[in-house]
Amino acid sequence: AYGSTRWFSFAGQQIQASEVAKLLVIVSLARYLADRQRQMADPRVFVISLVMAALPAVLVLIEPDMGTAAVFGAIWLGMVAMAGAPPRYLVIALGVALAAIPFMALLTLGDYQIDRFRLWIDPASDPLGGGFNIRQAEIGIGSGGIFGQGFTHGTQTQLDFLQTSTTDYIFSVLGEELGLIGALVLFALFTALLFRGIRAATLSQDQFGSLIATGIVIMILFQVFINVAVNIRLVPVTGIPLPFISQGGSSLVMMFVALGLLEGILIRHKRLEF
Where exactly are the structural domains of the chain? Predict the structure, then answer.
């Protein structure tokens, strides 16, 4: 959409390259940082790890896809912190990133992305155009109440007031049809996944597995936060899917691959006996 190119064809299937790249970056960073766990004070190790995450982030910015680029940044930051990078390096990196945001915005933001920021601030400026979905998402969540309107009985969704209801605004659908209770159940499931990931990172026999678990948990939960924040208008629309919930084959497949890696780390933490 809007001139972006995010998919390639393989064996007759459309694959979103950035979804595959997220896991590849996690595994590559984990291997690199684990092999240098005693050298984390060396600025060269820190910079090289940054480049490993920045390269795919820049490529997805060119697509353009700022949301996914932010996911790469979150993955890198969490993994180098877990690997033991000195706090001063992290502070410097964050400072440089914040200072670079205006320049990157000037170079990469398209007109439609600027419109997203404008409509995020004031959806009423285009109530029947770009601001329509934003308002309908808020109405849907608000009308769900405690228990929701019932599965497949949400008015905003079933009457097609809410567009992209299976992707960007899937959380609004859940809030409208299943209410606060449904949203809390969803958050509880993601919280269980968080603790599962922390357990995997803690019990892993080596730094490599621990870092993979860290990267996977950050990847999933950061996307959850961004998607929900979009639905309740805390951040502009980014196109980030809600893991395991939003429509999208590439995202769903790679999320299950990530879960497989996470469970593999847990299985390996002790010797199997038959």
Answer: 7-267
